[in-house]
Amino acid sequence: MYTVPQLEDYSPAALDKAVHELLAAARQEADAVAGENEWKVFRDRWMARKNGILTQINDLWLKAAPGPAKREVGARVNQLKTQVEEHVSAAQQRSSGATSIARLESERIDITLPGIARELGAEHPVIKTMNEIVSVFRAMGYSIAEGPEIETDYLNFEALNFPPNHPARDTQDTIFIAGQEKKKQRDRLLLRTHTSPVQIRAMLNQPPPIRVVAPGKVHRADTADATHSPIFHQVEGLAVDTNITFCDLKGTLDHAMKSLFGSDVKTRFYPSFFPFTEPSADVQITCFKCGGKGCRLCKMSGWIELLGCGMIDPNVFKSVESNGYDARKISGFAFGMGVERITMLKYGIDDIQLFYQGDVRFLQQFT
Ligand code: DAH
């Protein structure tokens, strides 16, 4: 590293040599500067008022020069200052250029890389099954009906032949909306426990004949576990016309089960009870896993219970009589199924909670 020498010889030749060495050092150090911080160190080493190299030559060369040489040394020192300043500012330009090149270099992007693709969403498995069920009935000429999730006591129960205080209401684990004691019972609001009230709404909307399916969300005061959820989905069905018989019900649901689970499955209709149908049945299909031999899925019975159904009870028609539903002239059937249960059976899912946890790894298996 260059240090300023003391001058003993003030002859022009000696001065030339000293000046030459100093400028060579300045040029060399200037060339080595890379980046802003290095440049600041370089600038201060040469130009700092206090003990910078230019200050040093002022003291060591000019002030120390004997009288006759002062003029000559002064001129040289002035020249040197200008030249050193030039090196310093040139180094600044180069190093700030170097800094911005370094920055550009670090910010470089490869525009030939493929972009970040936004993945397409997909139908939730429950909605997918619900749509499948609905389209099976659409293909048979059914249209779609809907109703609200907040329903009246009348439509959820009474019109469906659950009289007030009837024990059949106990099976429905109802969530009531609070603070309605002043209202008549039939007007009180609750979260619908099944899609069956849409049967009444549809019949009030449209005189017979009618064929509708009603998919939707329902609510029960159930504690969540592997097979229960306080919110789940059902698809309801209703067909009313002249001369509708239990035979039509069997044929329709047999066809629907074969469409959903494969044409190998057989169906059977097991006696059951619902207030709004008479007679009522549970529909069972042969276990599609073991083919009816008996396995864990069907609890060794060979059969799996899938939905409820039955012929419309004449008391239900009474609630909609004003719209042309005269139980002496028409008849009909209804059915209702749980979408989660069917989805779980179809895909072998053993915990209903998986549908609601939003884990993408679970959901991606159905895309
Ligand atoms: N609403 C019944 C339930 O949620 C299911 C049901 C059974 C619907 C028989 C029907 C039916 O339409 O005929 O438990």
Question: What report would you give on this structure?
Answer:
This protein is α+β, with helices and mostly antiparallel strands and 367 residues long. Helix content is 40%, strand content 18%. The protein contains eleven helices and nine strands. The protein has helices at residues 12-32, 36-47, 53-63, 67-106, 125-138, 153-156, 197-205, 246-261, 314-319, 339-347, 360-363; strands spanning 143-144, 150-152, 189-191, 210-219, 231-241, 267-274, 277-286, 303-312, 331-338. A seven-stranded mixed β-sheet has the order 1-4-5-9-8-7-6, with helices on both faces. Strand 6 and strand 7 (277-286) form a beta hairpin. Helix 1 (12-32) packs parallel to helix 4 (67-106). The longest helix is centred in the first third of the chain and has 40 residues, at 67-106. The radius of gyration is 46 Å and the shape is rod-shaped. The mean pLDDT is 92. 3,4-dihydroxyphenylalanine is lined by residues 194, 196, 236, 274, 277, 308-310, 334-336.
Poorly predicted ranges = none
What is the chains' assembly state? single chain
Total beta strands: 9
Arrangement of strands in the largest sheet = 1-4-5-9-8-7-6
* Tally of individual helices: 11
**Helicity level:** 25-40%
Alpha-beta classification: alpha+beta
- Shape, per Cα inertia axes: rod-shaped
Share of residues in strands: 15-25%
What small ligands are held by the chains?
Answer: 3,4-dihydroxyphenylalanine
Distance between the termini: 70 Å
Instruction: Evaluate the radius of gyration.
Output: 46 Å
Order of helices and strands: HHHHHEEHEHEEHEEEHEHH
**Integer average pLDDT:** 92
Q: How is the biggest beta sheet arranged?
A: 7 strands, mixed
